[in-house]
Amino acid sequence: MHVTHQDLLNLEDRYRANFVNSLSGFKSANLVGTADDEGNTNLAIVSSVFHLGANPPLIGMISRPHSVARDTLENIQSVGEYTINHVNNGIWKRAHQTSARYPREVSEFDAVGLTPQWQEGVRAPFVAESRLKYSLALISSQTIDLNGVVLLIGEITHLHVEREAIAEGGYIDIESLGSIAVSGLDNYHVTDSLGRLTYAKPHTKPEIFG
Amino acid sequence: MHVTHQDLLNLEDRYRANFVNSLSGFKSANLVGTADDEGNTNLAIVSSVFHLGANPPLIGMISRPHSVARDTLENIQSVGEYTINHVNNGIWKRAHQTSARYPREVSEFDAVGLTPQWQEGVRAPFVAESRLKYSLALISSQTIDLNGVVLLIGEITHLHVEREAIAEGGYIDIESLGSIAVSGLDNYHVTDSLGRLTYAKPHTKPEIFG
């Protein structure tokens, strides 16, 4: 089936959102924890967190200013700190429920039944039920003129992970932590590893290891 | 286990790369097809493609100028077009092998055994073996000063997908296409859907549908 640029523009908005959100492939599922200047907490599921660089350790995230998650964006820009918490197979439905349009004064932690966890020196709550999570200091916030979304870049300040998940060479076995993948807007997936492949070289074939 | 910012900086480079690349969660697995001004093809696996917006349909990608994939970046910036092709469970090892450091004059298509497929009007090759693929016109290329990586933004021009994969409301069932997820630098995963969840509202619980 061949779809042109014009075909995409002609789609009904909700249909197009579903369709185009499926195109990048599997996405990460994370909960973003924030607090406002008075310490009121907020929690939002996002599928737009991505790796930006290892040295320094930088994490990117795309935020939509007019979406349900606008409180999250305001808190991040005001306080300058936030947490990223992997969604796992024990909390995926509660995580999804954070995307409901709750009134500003309602904390999604309370509304969906997740537990804020505080780390000394970090002004944003972690999710106690998440098994891999880290706090970020905001170092760049930039509007993409093409469509008005905001690219947030944060540097990792503190990280919590279950030690058993750290495998050979520093790889973290996020499948063993039950971490979830997302496709489109609303489909959640557990994973089954095909294997880790050796570093590719021109005259050898990749092999499964580990 | 608690890891601080300083702990991360103290890690050996390769260990840190493995570790930090695991933190964002599952990543998309795509092959980027390009050609130079003379039509010589190039193919590179990337895990840094992400959804940027549905209207207009925009796809983001992070590229490292000094990496193995530097030919890809040069071709994109020179020609202004590229293709994104989902890696599936039939081609994942060949896809990984494109990350080997082949000489510039070798096409990774030939080297790993994948087939270039041309669409009239597009100056970049698709991967015939991929079951969901699209071409992009480059509309923005921007260096992130913090670490020198390049953020490429493209608009979708042509798309090819198997019609059977398009489900209710425009969602594309990428799991049915065998699309792969990546974790860390080298682990590949097939997926098993837990279900699609209904649009979240404050006073209802999400339910599985579809």
UniProtKB/TrEMBL annotation, chains A, B:
SUPFAM superfamilies: FMN-binding split barrel (SSF50475). The keyword GTP-binding does not apply. Its EC number is 1.5.1.-. Residues 25-166 form the Flavin reductase like domain. Its cofactor is FMN. One of its GO terms (molecular function) is FMN binding. It is an enzyme of class 1 (oxidoreductase). InterPro entries: Flavin_Rdtase-like_dom, Split_barrel_FMN-bd. Keywords: Flavoprotein, FMN, Oxidoreductase. It comes from the Bacteria. The keyword Iron does not apply. Belongs to the flavoredoxin family. This is Flavin reductase family protein. It comes from Vibrio chaetopteri.
